[in-house]
Every structure is written in C-alpha cells, then in structure tokens.
Write a structure and sequence with these properties.
Length: about 550
Amino acid sequence: MTTIVTPTQPIDGQKPGTSGLRKKTPVFMEPGYVENFVQAIFDGIGGAEGKTFVVGGDGRYFNDKAIGTIIRMAAANGAAKLIVGQGGLLSTPAASNLIRKNKTDGGIILSASHNPGGPNADFGIKFNIPNGGPAPEKVTEAIFAATTSISEYRISDAAAPDLSVLGTSDVDGMVVQVIDSVADYAELMGELFDFDAIKALFAGGFTMCFDAMHAVTGPYAKAILEGTLGAAPGTVINGVPSPDFGGGHPDPNPVWAKELVDTMMAADAPDFGAASDGDGDRNMIMGRGQFVSPSDSLAMLTANATHAPAYAKGLSGVARSMPTSQAVDRVAADLGIECFETPTGWKFFGNLLDADRATLCGEESAGTGSNHVREKDGLWAVLLWLNILAAKGQSVAEISAAHWAKFGRNYYARHDFEAVEKAKANDLVDTLREALPGLVGQSFGPFTVAGGTNFAYTDPVDGSVSENQGLIVAFEGGSRFVIRLSGTGTEGATIRLYLESYTGPDGDLALPVDQALSEIVAVAYEMIGLTAKTGRSEPDVVT
Ligand code: VG1
Ligand code: CO
C-alpha cells in the first residue's frame, strides 16, 4: 500500500463555528472537501505522526464515507492508532470519554448535532483536544489557517476496514481498533450515579419515555435505561439511528420533539420524559404535564446534585453560557460557590472544568454536563435527574415548585428567526450595539434599562479574550434580553433572541411562560427594530 500525495487548493469558508465545521451535505461531498479539512486538522495540530485519535459520528448520511476517508488519511499522515466506534457510531460525550480514558491525542467527531441529516441536509466535522473537549479558539484558528494555505493532502490507497466488526486491524501500518460504541460510556455512568436507587425506582412502577429522535443515543439509552436499570421495554422510542433521523430535526425541543411532548401532556403521561439530539450531547427534560426549561434544569440539578454519588462532596463551582437564564446564579450564591458566565459553545467550559473551578456547566440550548467528560452530555443529565427523583422520592413538579418557592422563577424563552438575509441580520445587531450606551436609564413599557453590554469574556484560567459574543440589555429587577447570531446555521443568518423575566419567590410562579414573557417580548421586538429591519414579526421556532 502506498501514500498518495494529492495536490489541492484552499477551499473558501472552512472556518469552524460554534461547534466545528458545519455545511450542507452536498458541500462536504464535493471532491477534496473532507480531505482538505481533515489534512488541515492534522496540520493545525502539528501533524498526526505517531498519534492516537478517537473517531466516530452520529450516524447521519455520509458518516460512513467520511470516516473511511479519515482512516485512510490518518494512516497516510503517520498516525499510530485510531479507536473507532462500531459502525462508525459514537455519541459526542462517549467520544469525549474515550479520548480521556485512553489518553489519546484527541478525536474527530462527525456530526452536525441538532441539524437535520440527509443528502440535502447538514453535515459537520469537529476536532476535540486531548482533554476530550472541543478545540478552543486558538486551535480552531490554527486549523482554519491551515485550510487557507493547504497545497496537498495525504491519503493511503489501502481499503478502510469493515467497521461493523469489533476488533483490531492494520491499515498501512496504522492500527484501527473498532470498539463497542456503548460499553465504556455505560460503565462511566454506573460510576457516577446510584444505579441501585434508580433500579428500585423503576421496579416500584415509575414510568418514563425517552425519545432518541432516530439519532445516536438510541443504543445508549436502550442499554442503560431498559437494560441495566430495568425501565420497561418500549421506554426508549425512536431508538434506531437512521441516516436522516426519520426525516426530522434531531433537536430536543418542544417543536421538534412533539411526539414526546404529546405523550407527556396526555392524561396518562409517564412520570418522566426526556429526549436527546443528533449526537447525544443535548437533553430535554419533562415531567408529567410539564416542560422543564434547560436553564431551570441546570439550576435544579445544581441545587440537588449532592444526591448523586459523584457530586456528594459538593460542587466546586458552576458555569453557564451568557444567554442561559440567571436561575443557576441564585443557586450558586446560596451554595456559596463560584458562578461563571461564558460565551455560547461548550469549548469555553473546558478550562474551568480542567482547573476544577466548575463541576457542572450548562447552556439554554438543552446542554448540560459535568467534569466527567468535556462535552455536554444528554443521557448524563437524564440519569442525574433520575438519581435525584429516586433519592428525593418527589416528582418533577414537586421539585420545580419547591425550587421556585425558594429562589423565584426566571421565566425564559428563546425566539429564533431563521434564514434571515445576512446583511439585514448584521445591520440589526450593529444598530443595537451602537445604541447600547445610550439606553441606560431609559424606560420601555414597564422596564427601565439598567445596563447594555456587548459581551466579552476573559478566560479566568488562561487569560484568553473572546469579544463580540452577544448583546445584553438588562433591566432593573433582574429581567433581560440577549441577542446574538447563530454560529451553527448553514443557511443565511439565524437571529437568536433570548428573553428572561424574573419573578421573586412571592410572585406568581405558575404562569404560562408566554404570558409571563409577553411584555418583555413586545419591548424587545420594538427595541431591536425586528420588523423594520427584517420584515419578520413572528419567530420561526420558540424554545
Ligand atoms: C448552538 C447553541 C449552543 C450550542 C451549539 C452546539 O449554537 O446555541 O448553545 O453550544 O449550538 O450545540 P449557535 O451558535 O447556533 O447558537 V450542538 O448540540 O452542536 O453540539
Ligand atoms: Co449536539
């Protein structure tokens, strides 16, 4: 077998966003597109010679072909070994665990996460560093720089091995180890949680519905929930990964996980409901007749984490992305632990977790995780909830009500405006940014502006600075809205408007969310000039 050195030219736009490089699938399928980016990853990290990587993806259309290319390129670039999930499948948190457990030099994860999959949908590739977490900005910048100066890529003409068979093979002098996609992850979960208590919960008749959304968590959820923990067969729905996620968006929110929402809102609903996304790093939590907002979930998990063995000694600190509601800040203050506010994207939590400044982290977009890996972790959040429900002997509704009665409630929603013309979206954000300093002290409806911030973050561990991470308009009394443009979309611009209205413990804690937010929504739309600048008056998705 020989290495073929293929001349190539830079391809425009191979710039990683919030979570790796995401494009339409046909773009990834263009000749040389995957090859250029994978070579740039190797070049950007100082070469692959002698290194070991984890490789796997969420099983979406083109996953198998892209992995074949990565295997042949890693061999040609002198890598020593690849650890690959069976059938090319690995959830993002499972990949993070394998990178850490095997002390590898990183991993390549193929996923566009919550974006739809298929020949005309979305695909993505991201690189994770040896701590198991998404590459920080200095690494993604080096990879991007390599894409702009690339002149050749290296690929072996050996055939990639059959990934359906467990075991070890040789590709041009490189070892390829195909491993069970679930086993190591399931073992880790067993170390973190009180599985006996959860088993007893299910044995006592507790019922649950887990919607895997035809994505990667199906096999994980079936093995752990129905296999190990004894949940009733059929607890996991849509549990077989499919290349186009059954034609849906594998995005666990009330819009796309409607099947689960309908089940949980029915008169005979199970006790607990949950869903995960394409690559298994997100979670949606529901009680009977109740949706738990991801921001509230983070706050409630933080307040109750000590019920799980892994966190029994307490948390060192907690971190949330900036647009995530401030509910967890109140819990952190009560616990007397640090609370960090980072830019959107899991890569910003890595240093805080490595330095043990934060134990739990979370994002409003249904991402929650802890120091057990360096990615957000959907099934982990579900298991932590189950552990808490089992330990406290309470329902989701009882835990929520007690939480709000103590801390007050941060009513919260995100409004997304999708496929907006880029120039219009930029103009809207630019106009608000320039107006921010003059807004302070002004009143809009019942709200008085307390502060306007163009959010920048200085990493407290390595001092790196990330600017222009979103605009915050904060009102007196703790309510606010945030606006930023998505870094994962593949079509035009997606405007994300995050709305938060705080009600103290003595206020009305049981309002429908849209009613509680109606005034701040009206004020925010007016203040950003939504209709005037974009012609839109309704969001495409509310989560
Ligand atoms: C979105 C979310 C963000 C999340 C990112 C990756 O980014 O808002 O919170 O970290 O997706 O999630 P953006 O830039 O589109 O707002 V996923 O599950 O890729 O891994
Ligand atoms: Co995801």
